[in-house]
Automatic annotation (TrEMBL):
SUPFAM superfamilies: L-sulfolactate dehydrogenase-like (SSF89733). Pfam families: Ldh_2. It comes from Rhizobium jaguaris. Belongs to the LDH2/MDH2 oxidoreductase family. This is Ldh family oxidoreductase. It comes from the Bacteria.
Amino acid sequence: MTNSSDRQTRISYDDLTSLLARIFVRFGVSEANAAIVAANCAGCERDGSLSHGVFRMPGYVSSLRSGWVDGKAVAAVLDVSTAFIRVDARNGFAQPALSLAMPLAVEKASKFGAAVLAIKDSHHFSALWPDLEPLARNGFVALSMVSGLACVAPPGGRKAVMGTNPIAFATPVDGANPMIFDFATSSMSNGDLRIAAREGRGVPLGTGVDAEGEFTEDPSRILDGGALLPFGGHKGSALSLMVEVLASALTGGQFSSEVDFSAHSGAETPKTGQLVIVIDPRRGGNEVFASRVAQLMDVVRASGQTRLPSDRRYRTREAAERDGIPLNDETYQNLLSMTR
Ligand code: NDP
Protein backbone atom coordinates (compact mmCIF):
# COMPACT_ATOMS: atom_id res chain seq x y z
CA MET A 1 0.00 0.00 0.00
CA THR A 2 1.42 3.46 -0.91
CA ASN A 3 0.43 7.03 -0.29
CA SER A 4 0.92 9.15 -3.40
CA SER A 5 1.52 12.88 -3.50
CA ASP A 6 -2.02 13.59 -4.71
CA ARG A 7 -3.19 12.38 -1.31
CA GLN A 8 -4.56 9.16 -2.63
CA THR A 9 -4.09 5.83 -0.97
CA ARG A 10 -3.78 2.80 -3.17
CA ILE A 11 -4.88 -0.40 -1.56
CA SER A 12 -5.04 -3.96 -2.80
CA TYR A 13 -8.37 -5.76 -3.12
CA ASP A 14 -7.35 -8.22 -0.38
CA ASP A 15 -6.31 -5.45 2.03
CA LEU A 16 -9.50 -3.49 1.37
CA THR A 17 -11.60 -6.64 1.89
CA SER A 18 -9.88 -7.32 5.25
CA LEU A 19 -10.34 -3.71 6.34
CA LEU A 20 -14.05 -3.72 5.49
CA ALA A 21 -14.52 -7.13 7.13
CA ARG A 22 -13.04 -5.73 10.36
CA ILE A 23 -15.60 -2.91 10.24
CA PHE A 24 -18.48 -5.32 9.66
CA VAL A 25 -17.35 -7.58 12.52
CA ARG A 26 -16.99 -4.58 14.82
CA PHE A 27 -20.62 -3.67 14.15
CA GLY A 28 -21.99 -7.13 14.86
CA VAL A 29 -21.63 -9.13 11.64
CA SER A 30 -20.41 -12.72 12.00
CA GLU A 31 -16.90 -13.41 10.64
CA ALA A 32 -18.32 -15.58 7.84
CA ASN A 33 -20.92 -13.03 6.72
CA ALA A 34 -18.46 -10.15 7.08
CA ALA A 35 -16.00 -11.82 4.70
CA ILE A 36 -18.73 -12.14 2.04
CA VAL A 37 -20.22 -8.64 2.31
CA ALA A 38 -16.76 -7.06 2.55
CA ALA A 39 -15.58 -8.86 -0.60
CA ASN A 40 -18.69 -7.63 -2.41
CA CYS A 41 -18.17 -4.02 -1.33
CA ALA A 42 -14.42 -4.07 -2.07
CA GLY A 43 -15.16 -5.59 -5.49
CA CYS A 44 -17.53 -2.72 -6.31
CA GLU A 45 -14.87 -0.19 -5.32
CA ARG A 46 -12.20 -2.04 -7.34
CA ASP A 47 -14.37 -2.14 -10.46
CA GLY A 48 -15.41 1.50 -10.27
CA SER A 49 -19.01 0.72 -9.23
CA LEU A 50 -18.47 3.53 -6.80
CA SER A 51 -22.11 4.04 -5.84
CA HIS A 52 -21.92 0.61 -4.17
CA GLY A 53 -18.31 0.61 -2.96
CA VAL A 54 -16.94 2.03 0.29
CA PHE A 55 -19.33 4.98 -0.07
CA ARG A 56 -21.96 2.55 1.29
CA MET A 57 -20.07 1.67 4.48
CA PRO A 58 -21.70 4.35 6.68
CA GLY A 59 -25.12 3.11 5.49
CA TYR A 60 -24.22 -0.51 6.29
CA VAL A 61 -22.95 0.53 9.71
CA SER A 62 -25.93 2.69 10.60
CA SER A 63 -28.35 -0.06 9.48
CA LEU A 64 -26.49 -2.55 11.69
CA ARG A 65 -26.44 -0.15 14.63
CA SER A 66 -30.16 0.46 14.27
CA GLY A 67 -30.87 -3.26 14.72
CA TRP A 68 -32.75 -3.31 11.40
CA VAL A 69 -30.55 -5.99 9.81
CA ASP A 70 -29.14 -9.11 11.45
CA GLY A 71 -25.45 -9.36 10.56
CA LYS A 72 -25.24 -12.84 12.08
CA ALA A 73 -28.19 -14.31 10.19
CA VAL A 74 -27.76 -17.77 8.71
CA ALA A 75 -30.18 -18.30 5.83
CA ALA A 76 -32.44 -21.33 5.51
CA VAL A 77 -32.18 -23.02 2.12
CA LEU A 78 -35.21 -25.03 1.01
CA ASP A 79 -34.84 -27.46 -1.90
CA VAL A 80 -38.39 -27.07 -3.20
CA SER A 81 -38.33 -29.04 -6.45
CA THR A 82 -36.22 -30.10 -9.40
CA ALA A 83 -35.26 -26.58 -10.41
CA PHE A 84 -36.61 -24.40 -7.62
CA ILE A 85 -34.91 -23.25 -4.43
CA ARG A 86 -36.41 -21.01 -1.80
CA VAL A 87 -34.17 -19.16 0.62
CA ASP A 88 -35.19 -17.35 3.77
CA ALA A 89 -32.39 -14.87 4.47
CA ARG A 90 -33.83 -14.38 7.96
CA ASN A 91 -33.36 -10.63 7.95
CA GLY A 92 -29.70 -10.90 6.94
CA PHE A 93 -27.72 -9.50 4.03
CA ALA A 94 -28.58 -11.02 0.64
CA GLN A 95 -25.04 -12.00 -0.33
CA PRO A 96 -24.38 -14.55 2.47
CA ALA A 97 -27.80 -16.09 1.74
CA LEU A 98 -26.93 -16.25 -1.95
CA SER A 99 -23.56 -17.74 -1.23
CA LEU A 100 -25.12 -20.49 0.89
CA ALA A 101 -27.66 -21.40 -1.78
CA MET A 102 -25.51 -20.97 -4.89
CA PRO A 103 -23.86 -24.43 -4.90
CA LEU A 104 -27.33 -26.05 -4.98
CA ALA A 105 -28.46 -23.68 -7.77
CA VAL A 106 -25.39 -24.55 -9.82
CA GLU A 107 -25.92 -28.26 -9.17
CA LYS A 108 -29.54 -28.04 -10.33
CA ALA A 109 -28.72 -25.92 -13.38
CA SER A 110 -25.97 -28.36 -14.33
CA LYS A 111 -28.20 -31.40 -13.83
CA PHE A 112 -31.52 -30.11 -15.10
CA GLY A 113 -30.62 -27.14 -17.31
CA ALA A 114 -32.04 -24.36 -15.14
CA ALA A 115 -32.53 -23.25 -11.56
CA VAL A 116 -34.62 -20.55 -9.91
CA LEU A 117 -33.41 -19.10 -6.63
CA ALA A 118 -36.01 -17.11 -4.72
CA ILE A 119 -34.66 -15.26 -1.69
CA LYS A 120 -36.89 -13.48 0.80
CA ASP A 121 -36.37 -11.34 3.87
CA SER A 122 -32.97 -10.19 2.57
CA HIS A 123 -31.17 -6.84 2.58
CA HIS A 124 -29.53 -6.03 -0.78
CA PHE A 125 -27.55 -2.81 -0.54
CA SER A 126 -25.16 -3.35 -3.43
CA ALA A 127 -24.77 -3.80 -7.17
CA LEU A 128 -26.14 -7.00 -8.70
CA TRP A 129 -23.31 -7.85 -11.10
CA PRO A 130 -21.11 -9.45 -8.37
CA ASP A 131 -23.93 -11.94 -7.74
CA LEU A 132 -23.92 -13.03 -11.40
CA GLU A 133 -20.36 -12.76 -12.67
CA PRO A 134 -19.14 -16.06 -11.11
CA LEU A 135 -22.07 -17.86 -12.79
CA ALA A 136 -21.26 -16.48 -16.24
CA ARG A 137 -17.58 -17.31 -15.73
CA ASN A 138 -18.70 -20.90 -15.19
CA GLY A 139 -20.66 -20.99 -18.43
CA PHE A 140 -24.16 -20.11 -17.14
CA VAL A 141 -26.51 -17.42 -18.32
CA ALA A 142 -27.99 -15.63 -15.31
CA LEU A 143 -30.58 -13.03 -14.54
CA SER A 144 -31.27 -11.30 -11.25
CA MET A 145 -33.47 -8.59 -9.83
CA VAL A 146 -34.04 -6.90 -6.50
CA SER A 147 -36.88 -4.73 -5.21
CA GLY A 148 -36.03 -1.81 -2.95
CA LEU A 149 -37.31 1.26 -1.15
CA ALA A 150 -40.33 3.07 -2.56
CA CYS A 151 -39.08 6.18 -4.37
CA VAL A 152 -40.43 5.63 -7.91
CA ALA A 153 -43.97 6.38 -9.13
CA PRO A 154 -45.54 4.71 -12.18
CA PRO A 155 -46.30 6.99 -15.17
CA GLY A 156 -49.29 9.15 -14.26
CA GLY A 157 -48.76 8.48 -10.57
CA ARG A 158 -47.60 10.91 -7.93
CA LYS A 159 -46.91 8.53 -5.06
CA ALA A 160 -43.69 6.53 -4.88
CA VAL A 161 -44.72 2.88 -4.72
CA MET A 162 -41.84 1.08 -6.45
CA GLY A 163 -38.14 0.81 -5.73
CA THR A 164 -35.38 1.70 -8.17
CA ASN A 165 -35.64 -2.05 -8.85
CA PRO A 166 -32.45 -3.05 -10.68
CA ILE A 167 -32.15 -5.87 -13.19
CA ALA A 168 -28.90 -7.61 -14.13
CA PHE A 169 -28.14 -10.09 -16.88
CA ALA A 170 -24.92 -12.02 -17.44
CA THR A 171 -23.78 -14.21 -20.31
CA PRO A 172 -20.57 -16.04 -21.12
CA VAL A 173 -18.73 -14.77 -24.21
CA ASP A 174 -16.29 -17.15 -25.81
CA GLY A 175 -12.71 -15.89 -25.50
CA ALA A 176 -13.68 -12.82 -23.50
CA ASN A 177 -14.99 -11.69 -20.14
CA PRO A 178 -18.72 -12.28 -19.57
CA MET A 179 -21.01 -9.50 -20.75
CA ILE A 180 -23.05 -8.22 -17.84
CA PHE A 181 -25.45 -5.34 -17.68
CA ASP A 182 -26.81 -4.16 -14.39
CA PHE A 183 -28.96 -1.08 -13.92
CA ALA A 184 -31.90 0.38 -12.06
CA THR A 185 -35.25 0.63 -13.82
CA SER A 186 -35.63 4.22 -12.59
CA SER A 187 -34.71 7.23 -14.72
CA MET A 188 -31.92 8.03 -12.27
CA SER A 189 -30.59 6.56 -9.06
CA ASN A 190 -31.81 8.08 -5.83
CA GLY A 191 -28.19 8.81 -4.89
CA ASP A 192 -27.58 10.81 -8.09
CA LEU A 193 -30.82 12.72 -7.50
CA ARG A 194 -29.65 13.69 -4.00
CA ILE A 195 -26.28 14.80 -5.33
CA ALA A 196 -27.99 16.99 -7.97
CA ALA A 197 -30.18 18.56 -5.26
CA ARG A 198 -27.18 19.20 -3.02
CA GLU A 199 -25.26 20.84 -5.88
CA GLY A 200 -28.28 22.90 -6.98
CA ARG A 201 -28.31 21.29 -10.44
CA GLY A 202 -31.48 20.67 -12.42
CA VAL A 203 -32.34 17.21 -13.78
CA PRO A 204 -33.83 16.41 -17.22
CA LEU A 205 -37.60 16.77 -17.49
CA GLY A 206 -39.09 13.30 -17.11
CA THR A 207 -36.73 12.29 -14.30
CA GLY A 208 -39.44 12.65 -11.71
CA VAL A 209 -42.55 14.42 -10.47
CA ASP A 210 -43.27 16.76 -7.57
CA ALA A 211 -45.79 16.10 -4.78
CA GLU A 212 -48.63 17.17 -7.12
CA GLY A 213 -47.56 14.70 -9.80
CA GLU A 214 -46.22 17.45 -12.11
CA PHE A 215 -42.98 16.98 -14.07
CA THR A 216 -40.17 19.03 -12.59
CA GLU A 217 -36.51 19.70 -13.32
CA ASP A 218 -35.91 20.57 -9.66
CA PRO A 219 -34.48 17.54 -7.80
CA SER A 220 -35.49 19.00 -4.41
CA ARG A 221 -39.15 18.98 -5.46
CA ILE A 222 -38.83 15.32 -6.47
CA LEU A 223 -37.28 14.50 -3.12
CA ASP A 224 -39.76 16.59 -1.15
CA GLY A 225 -42.85 14.39 -1.38
CA GLY A 226 -42.51 13.67 -5.11
CA ALA A 227 -41.10 10.62 -6.84
CA LEU A 228 -38.65 9.46 -9.46
CA LEU A 229 -40.11 7.94 -12.64
CA PRO A 230 -39.07 4.71 -14.36
CA PHE A 231 -36.83 5.02 -17.44
CA GLY A 232 -38.57 4.65 -20.80
CA GLY A 233 -42.11 5.50 -19.70
CA HIS A 234 -44.52 2.57 -19.68
CA LYS A 235 -41.79 0.14 -20.77
CA GLY A 236 -39.50 0.81 -17.79
CA SER A 237 -42.53 0.90 -15.53
CA ALA A 238 -43.58 -2.57 -16.67
CA LEU A 239 -40.06 -3.87 -16.02
CA SER A 240 -40.16 -2.34 -12.55
CA LEU A 241 -43.51 -4.00 -11.95
CA MET A 242 -42.00 -7.30 -13.03
CA VAL A 243 -39.25 -6.83 -10.43
CA GLU A 244 -41.86 -6.30 -7.70
CA VAL A 245 -43.69 -9.44 -8.88
CA LEU A 246 -40.61 -11.66 -9.09
CA ALA A 247 -38.36 -10.30 -6.34
CA SER A 248 -41.16 -9.68 -3.82
CA ALA A 249 -44.43 -11.50 -4.56
CA LEU A 250 -42.81 -14.66 -5.90
CA THR A 251 -40.02 -14.82 -3.32
CA GLY A 252 -42.37 -14.04 -0.42
CA GLY A 253 -40.53 -10.80 0.40
CA GLN A 254 -41.97 -7.36 1.03
CA PHE A 255 -42.93 -5.02 -1.81
CA SER A 256 -40.86 -1.83 -1.96
CA SER A 257 -43.97 0.05 -0.78
CA GLU A 258 -44.16 -2.16 2.33
CA VAL A 259 -40.63 -1.60 3.61
CA ASP A 260 -40.98 0.35 6.83
CA PHE A 261 -37.91 0.93 8.91
CA SER A 262 -39.32 3.92 10.78
CA ALA A 263 -38.90 2.04 14.08
CA HIS A 264 -35.16 1.67 13.36
CA SER A 265 -33.63 5.10 13.30
CA GLY A 266 -30.58 5.14 11.01
CA ALA A 267 -31.66 2.11 8.96
CA GLU A 268 -30.88 2.43 5.25
CA THR A 269 -30.88 -1.06 3.71
CA PRO A 270 -34.02 -2.24 1.87
CA LYS A 271 -35.43 -5.51 3.22
CA THR A 272 -37.24 -7.14 0.31
CA GLY A 273 -36.25 -10.12 -1.82
CA GLN A 274 -34.12 -11.20 -4.75
CA LEU A 275 -34.71 -13.55 -7.65
CA VAL A 276 -31.88 -15.27 -9.50
CA ILE A 277 -32.41 -17.45 -12.58
CA VAL A 278 -29.53 -19.66 -13.70
CA ILE A 279 -29.59 -21.38 -17.11
CA ASP A 280 -27.13 -23.80 -18.64
CA PRO A 281 -27.13 -22.62 -22.28
CA ARG A 282 -25.28 -25.73 -23.48
CA ARG A 283 -28.13 -28.08 -22.62
CA GLY A 284 -29.45 -30.09 -25.52
CA GLY A 285 -26.22 -29.94 -27.48
CA ASN A 286 -25.88 -26.18 -27.91
CA GLU A 287 -22.11 -26.28 -27.44
CA VAL A 288 -21.64 -23.22 -29.68
CA PHE A 289 -23.62 -20.89 -27.42
CA ALA A 290 -20.68 -18.85 -26.08
CA SER A 291 -19.06 -18.55 -29.50
CA ARG A 292 -22.40 -17.42 -30.99
CA VAL A 293 -22.58 -14.71 -28.30
CA ALA A 294 -19.01 -13.70 -29.13
CA GLN A 295 -20.07 -13.36 -32.80
CA LEU A 296 -22.99 -11.20 -31.73
CA MET A 297 -20.69 -8.94 -29.71
CA ASP A 298 -18.44 -8.58 -32.77
CA VAL A 299 -21.41 -7.62 -34.95
CA VAL A 300 -22.53 -5.01 -32.42
CA ARG A 301 -19.05 -3.56 -32.02
CA ALA A 302 -18.53 -3.52 -35.78
CA SER A 303 -21.70 -1.51 -36.16
CA GLY A 304 -20.09 1.25 -34.09
CA GLN A 305 -20.83 0.68 -30.41
CA THR A 306 -17.44 1.26 -28.82
CA ARG A 307 -18.52 0.53 -25.24
CA LEU A 308 -20.59 -2.48 -24.29
CA PRO A 309 -21.92 -3.03 -20.78
CA SER A 310 -19.17 -4.16 -18.38
CA ASP A 311 -16.28 -3.05 -20.68
CA ARG A 312 -15.57 -0.06 -18.43
CA ARG A 313 -15.77 -2.18 -15.29
CA TYR A 314 -13.25 -4.76 -16.50
CA ARG A 315 -10.88 -1.99 -17.59
CA THR A 316 -11.19 -0.37 -14.17
CA ARG A 317 -10.57 -3.72 -12.49
CA GLU A 318 -7.47 -4.34 -14.57
CA ALA A 319 -6.02 -0.96 -13.57
CA ALA A 320 -6.88 -1.55 -9.90
CA GLU A 321 -5.24 -4.97 -9.94
CA ARG A 322 -2.12 -3.44 -11.45
CA ASP A 323 -1.89 -0.20 -9.47
CA GLY A 324 -4.11 -0.81 -6.43
CA ILE A 325 -7.57 0.56 -5.74
CA PRO A 326 -7.48 4.35 -5.43
CA LEU A 327 -9.09 5.80 -2.32
CA ASN A 328 -8.76 9.39 -1.33
CA ASP A 329 -6.98 9.82 1.98
CA GLU A 330 -10.03 11.16 3.77
CA THR A 331 -12.10 8.13 2.77
CA TYR A 332 -9.31 5.79 3.82
CA GLN A 333 -8.90 7.51 7.20
CA ASN A 334 -12.67 7.36 7.73
CA LEU A 335 -12.63 3.62 7.06
CA LEU A 336 -9.74 3.16 9.50
CA SER A 337 -11.61 5.13 12.13
CA MET A 338 -14.60 2.82 11.69
CA THR A 339 -12.47 -0.10 12.87
CA ARG A 340 -11.70 1.60 16.20
P1 NDP B 1 -26.13 2.91 -14.96
O1 NDP B 1 -27.20 3.72 -15.57
O2 NDP B 1 -24.84 3.54 -14.61
O3 NDP B 1 -25.86 1.66 -15.93
C1 NDP B 1 -24.99 0.68 -15.53
C2 NDP B 1 -24.92 -0.45 -16.53
O4 NDP B 1 -24.95 0.03 -17.87
C3 NDP B 1 -23.63 -1.17 -16.38
O5 NDP B 1 -23.80 -2.48 -16.81
C4 NDP B 1 -22.73 -0.34 -17.29
O6 NDP B 1 -21.53 -1.03 -17.66
C5 NDP B 1 -23.63 -0.09 -18.45
N1 NDP B 1 -23.36 1.18 -19.11
C6 NDP B 1 -23.35 2.41 -18.55
N2 NDP B 1 -23.09 3.35 -19.49
C7 NDP B 1 -22.94 2.69 -20.65
C8 NDP B 1 -22.65 3.11 -21.99
N3 NDP B 1 -22.47 4.39 -22.30
N4 NDP B 1 -22.57 2.17 -22.94
C9 NDP B 1 -22.76 0.86 -22.65
N5 NDP B 1 -23.02 0.40 -21.41
C10 NDP B 1 -23.12 1.31 -20.42
O7 NDP B 1 -26.64 2.13 -13.67
P2 NDP B 1 -27.63 2.59 -12.52
O8 NDP B 1 -27.21 3.92 -12.00
O9 NDP B 1 -29.02 2.40 -12.94
O10 NDP B 1 -27.28 1.45 -11.43
C11 NDP B 1 -25.98 1.41 -10.87
C12 NDP B 1 -25.88 0.25 -9.91
O11 NDP B 1 -26.77 0.43 -8.84
C13 NDP B 1 -26.20 -1.13 -10.50
O12 NDP B 1 -25.11 -1.95 -10.20
C14 NDP B 1 -27.44 -1.58 -9.74
O13 NDP B 1 -27.49 -2.98 -9.46
C15 NDP B 1 -27.28 -0.83 -8.45
N6 NDP B 1 -28.55 -0.66 -7.75
C16 NDP B 1 -28.79 -1.41 -6.63
C17 NDP B 1 -29.97 -1.28 -5.94
C18 NDP B 1 -30.24 -2.14 -4.75
O14 NDP B 1 -31.29 -1.98 -4.14
N7 NDP B 1 -29.39 -3.06 -4.38
C19 NDP B 1 -30.99 -0.31 -6.35
C20 NDP B 1 -30.66 0.40 -7.56
C21 NDP B 1 -29.47 0.24 -8.22
P3 NDP B 1 -20.16 -0.73 -16.81
O15 NDP B 1 -20.39 -1.42 -15.48
O16 NDP B 1 -19.06 -1.31 -17.60
O17 NDP B 1 -20.05 0.76 -16.66
